[in-house]
Amino acid sequence: MGLAQRLVESSGVSVGVRRDRLRHATRTIAQAAIASMLAWWISNDLLGHQQAFFAPIVAITSLGVGLQRPTRRAVEIVGGVSVGVLVADLFISWVGVGTWQLGVTVALAMAAAVFFSGGVILVLQAGSTAVVVATLVPPTPDAPFAFERFLDAVIGGAVGLGVAMLLLPTNPVRQVDRALHGVVDPLAQVLRDTADALERGDDALALDALARARGLQVKVDQLRDASRHTADVALLAPARWGSRPALVAVEAAVPHLDNAARNGRVLARQAVTAIRRQDVPPPGLPAALRQTATAVTRLADMLGERWPDRARLAAAEAAEQATDVLHHTAGLFSQVVVAQARAVAADVLYATGLRYEEVVAFLPDVPEPRPTSRRDEVDDTD
Description:
The protein is an all-alpha fold. Helices cover 76% and strands 0% of the residues. It has 2 domains: 3-167, no CATH class; 172-362, Phosphate transport system protein phou homolog 2, domain 2 (Methane Monooxygenase Hydroxylase, Chain G, domain 1, Up-down Bundle).
């Protein structure tokens, strides 16, 4: 084994993991390389600007922001850089460089950004760019003020966003699908582990399931962010227009997945209490929880063509099993577990796009509660 490979593996991350990381970053690297080349070519070669370095820098900056944040924020970054360059070039070319000049330059750049927009990102970017211009690349007698660097910043931002949206747009479906699995897979596992814990009377396994359930909120928030952030790509990138219906469906389902995660957390907590109180679970309860997990898992197909039917059928079966169990238990905490399983199944149905009336019609023998909200849910604090 070579020295380089030993050093890599000794860091705790395998070569294979690093290769996968590099493979996933290939598109981003290609976008950055192309955007920087195009921005430099336009500013330096085509327009003949003498100090065109701001063009590729802003191109890469706007590209990186546009990949993971709404396009509006990417535009704020470009605007902030442009304002910072313009104000700093004007002021430094007039009064020269120095300590007090730096402070005044930053204040003027940020004030201009507040006046024109007020966005926090734009204001901070204007201030930091003014620092760069005032300290590292101030105007000189040989290179006095001109609008060139301001234009370079605008060109770089336009090129970066153009590459991100038109030339090599990222795949929004893949990003949302990864975030969606980050919610439904662990939630389904919580339900399966809770079923096993009730079957065995295993307090430790139930506590582990509860701990994972409490970590679901972070995953839900990540899914919410992913569904919002990729909407710009699906809207502006012609190559990704076909993904818009699926992404809209996921975005509409996020509140119901949030409810399902909260109901799953309450379910896991009540299962812990039931086990500790030796509340014997009725026959069929573990099976009902596993069927509920299956219904949740089917939501992972949300970006496919026929996912609603599969998810709805699984959720209906889960609700029916849970309701049947409810008729055979007198234990209070087991009843709560069953009720929460039914609530999760109902959340699955809502997530497929059904309204309250449609859910009731879809399950005529199972009166489902209206979609839960944070105000209505059971308190799950210990």
